Amino acid sequence: xxxxxxxxxxxxxxxxxxxxxxxxxxxxxxxxxxxxxxxxxxxxxxxxxxxxxxxxxxxxxxxxxxxxxxxxxxxxxxxxxxxxxxxxxxxxxxxxxxxxxxxxxxxxxxxxxxxxxxxxxxxxxxxxxxxxxxxxxxxxxxxxxxxxxxxxxxxxxxxxxxxxxxxxxxxxxxxxxxxxxxxxxxxxxxxxxxxxxxxxxxxxxxxxxxxxxxxxxxxxxxxxxxxxxxxxxxxxxxxxxxxxxxxxxxxxxxxxxxxxxxxxxxxxxxxxxxxxxxxxxxxxxxxxxxxxxxxxxxxxxxxxxxxxxxxxxxxxxxxxxxxxxxxxxxxxxxxxxxxxxxxxxxxxxxxxxxxxxxxxxxxxxxxxxxxxxxxxxxxxxxxxxxxxxxxxxxxxxxxxxxxxxxxxxxxxxxxxx
Length: 417
Ligand code: SF4
Description:
The chain is α/β, with parallel strands linked by helices. The termini are far apart. The strands form four sheets. It has an eight-stranded mixed β-sheet. The protein has a single domain (about 15-375), classed as pyruvate-formate lyase- activating enzyme. Helix content is about 40%, strand content about 20%. The chain contains 18 helices and 18 strands. The structure holds iron/sulfur cluster. The site of iron/sulfur cluster has 9 residues, from strand 7.
């Protein structure tokens, strides 16, 4: 199974393996690739978690923990459920296929989030496939955007795991699901070998200076650009995330040059969406960042606490940066779909001249854009009321509605206009 051409740059010290995951395909792939590492089989998850609980994150990231996930893999993006009344979210769905990340961005929110410091990979991917099928069947009238990489980097270990291929094969049969994989790597060569193209490969992008000083162990900007060109030319969908946008002394020159370089390798026709979100952090995370990266430049720029409790740059600075980047994006890529990640209504208005009434409306705009720009994929035609329905009447139990078996869900959906 070992593919000699795969070169993963991350070094691990040891593999811990839950005995239930022993025979899973993903486990075999990992054990084969890291055949030189010691392996310890664990009978009880709690005992393992207790053992690593006090291991510092930098050390913990060097352990691989292979186990099966017992809950639902797919959830609403936390922004959609927690803050959508304050900041406009987009009703995105996330797949938690792994937790933790071998990359070391100094702003990473995982530093204040994970209780288990090991690089955790869930091996029961068949369950994700099943959830995707159920999700699709329960929501036939909606275009659903679902993404991996919420708690990890989607492609960091994918050349070994090949989860992309499993999930791309599943969504190829589902007319209403668009799957996104987000990365800061250049691990794309294995994707080019797949027969599937209904997949969004997205990059989080920042100027060279930020990549160099802040996104440790990630691919350089040049490497990411080369990977984007391959994905662009192979006919995948491309997403770009200007997130987190970071203030630094030469931010204008940096972001202008970044957009020029992106335009050289990515065609506007292939871009499905571009997001913008400024650097934001819960106050305790700021302390973690100071401890782990005392010289980081990311804590420059005046910040205030927002209504969701997170620290953000003051509004005039956010507005200035967003407007500059937005105008450059329009010049470079024309009418591609650009949206804010977790921003307030007035900033939408100030920068883009439009302000969605709620997250359902953002979701609807997404659906219209996808439907119109990529008609060859036969998406369900977006109806405004369908996207409002989740927001207005199913707010409290929206996730349960999504997970009902198709037969049960269809009676629920029957009331929808
Ligand atoms: S790539 Fe994403 S998950 Fe990984 S360290 Fe950076 S911000 Fe965190």
